[in-house]
Amino acid sequence: MELTPVFIALLLVTGLIAGVINTLAGGGSNLTLPALMVMGLPADVANATNRVGVFFQCLVGLKGFDRHGKLERTDIKGILIPTLAGGLVGALFASFLPVWLLKPVLLGTMVTMALLILLRPSAVMPAEEEMAGKVSGNPKAWGALLLAGFYGGFVQAGVGFVLIAALAGVLRYDLVRANALKLLCSAAFTAVALGIFIWQGQVAWVPGLVLAVGTMVGARLGVGMAMKVSQKTLKWFLFVMTLCASVAALLF
Q1: 60-101: per-residue pLDDT in tens?
Q2: Whole-angstrom distance, CA of residue 44 vs CA of residue 197
Q3: What's the pTM?
Q4: CA 235 to CA 123: how far, in whole Å?
């Protein structure tokens, strides 16, 4: 595979857009995965290579949210343990199971999330007076984060929606703090998944690092936008992106 100037531009632009989308909601991998596959990467290699951009985007986004005081630190350990456990199992499944399973899992998850946001908006937008809970002693939160981690380790695309459902819907963080914690979780299980994919020799490093440049710029822009928009705007952006992710799952 030759990395031509056209492909470099494609990866940078799609990476930038995906970085913004992933920081504000999720589903950016529905742009970057097809871009990697257009370059000629097999689906399993594209799925693995995409994690390089996702990981670095998460680090930049985390730093930005932390700088604005929006990274909630009180329950990081409780949130990361089930998410990492799920991510490890999901990545192992993704590495050994047939590639054709990715699409039905992605489509089913995105349609479910779109219906949840539309029919039960409180699932992603807690009331302002609500206090966020802790994972400890909360089996529902444990289950939701374990499932989110598994999904993220398995397919990655759209995992932001699943994490927001767990962090805002179950633990009741507001959407800005949920997005910050979402990036923390994504960085954690993406690191686990990336390690497994590297072990399996499935990462194409040059396109992965080019993509990462775009996603990091996008994440920086996304944090700035998150600080300026309302909870209601973020909710509807989340809904639109979920619909787009559903359409992308059908097309690709």
Answers
A1: 999 999 999 999 888 888 999 999 898 888 878 877 777 667
A2: 9
A3: 0.82
A4: 10
Angle made by CA atoms 110, 113, 117, in degrees to the nearest 5:
140
> Which one-letter amino acid corresponds to residue 167?
L
Contact (CB, 8 A) for 90 and 52: no
Whole-Å CA distances, 14 to 146, 158, 161, 162, 197? 29, 15, 19, 22, 22
Q: Scanning the structure block, which residue is given the tokens 């940078």?
A: 12
Q: What's the CA gap between 249 and 79, in Å, rounded?
A: 28
Cα–Cα dist 193/157, whole Å = 13
Q: Where are the domains of the chain?
A: 5-251
User: For residue 96, what are the contacts with CB-CB under 8 A and spacing of at least 6?
Assistant: none
Q: What is the pLDDT of residues 232-250, one digit of tens each?
A: 787 777 778 777 766 766 6
DSSP 147-201: HHHHHHHHT-TTHHHHHHIIIIIIS---HHHHHHHHHHHHHHHHHHHHHHHHHTT
- How many angstroms separate the first and last alpha carbons of the chain? 21
**Contact predicate 218/15, CB 8 Å:** yes
Written as six digits, the tokens of 201 are 């020799």
- SS3 (DSSP) at 53: helix
Query: What angle in degrees, to the nearest 10, is found between the helix axes of 5-24 and 205-226?
Result: 40
At position 46, the amino acid (one-letter code) is A
C-alpha 114, offset from chain centre: 16
